[in-house]
Amino acid sequence: xxxxxxxxxxxxxxxxxxxxxxxxxxxxxxxxxxxxxxxxxxxxxxxxxxxxxxxxxxxxxxxxxxxxxxxxxxxxxxxxxxxxxxxxxxxxxxxxxxxxxxxxxxxxxxxxxxxxxxxxxxxxxxxxxxxxxxxxxxxxxxxxxxxxxxxxxxxxxxxxxxxxxxxxxxxxxxxxxxxxxxxxxxxxxxxxxxxxxxxxxxxxxxxxxxxxxxxxxxxxxxxxxxxxxxxx
Length: 232
What we know:
The longest helix has 98 residues, at 3-100. α1 (3-100) packs across α4 and α2 (107-125) crosses α3 (139-157). 69% of the residues lie in helices and 9% in strands. The chain is rod-shaped and about 165 Å long. The chain contains five helices and four strands. By secondary structure, the chain is α+β, with helices and mostly antiparallel strands. It has helices at 3-100, 107-125, 139-157, 204-224, 227-230; strands at 129-133, 163-166, 188-193, 199-203.
């Protein structure tokens, strides 16, 4: 083998090695690019997932805030409606209270009413000795019917007539005017046992309070129907 053949053979070997190296380099480059693309895709998917989760989290926060705001607005509306209802109910009670003040204007009717209230109070107390308190303006009227009330009580309770003393301390007087804020009494009586432990408040104002409390559910139902119950 001459030098030319040797040189040619070496050139072929070099060319083969270079070709193999280039092919290997291309394989490495392709593999690296493929791995890079896979990793890039994984990173992109992970970031998309992260963004989606963040969006869902913020979306849920917005929904929660909306529900809270709606609930607060609904409660505020309920409170407002209840306040308006209370104002209307209280205005009705005030109107009824003003009507009570007229009861004592009819002397004959008020006289019979006072007698009935005294008898009722005596029946509730069932005490042999009783202290009676009334308005100063009603004292003479009470004195005029007291004996008849005592006898009526005795007949109904089938006991001896109770000893009733009219107190020199009086119930508050009628209101002096529409804008008066002083204590007042629309009429009626208060009876108490001798030791003061048992008291029967049979004033017209007390009876109005009791009647109003007892009838309040019915009043609300008549005025507002099912609205009140739906707001609770």
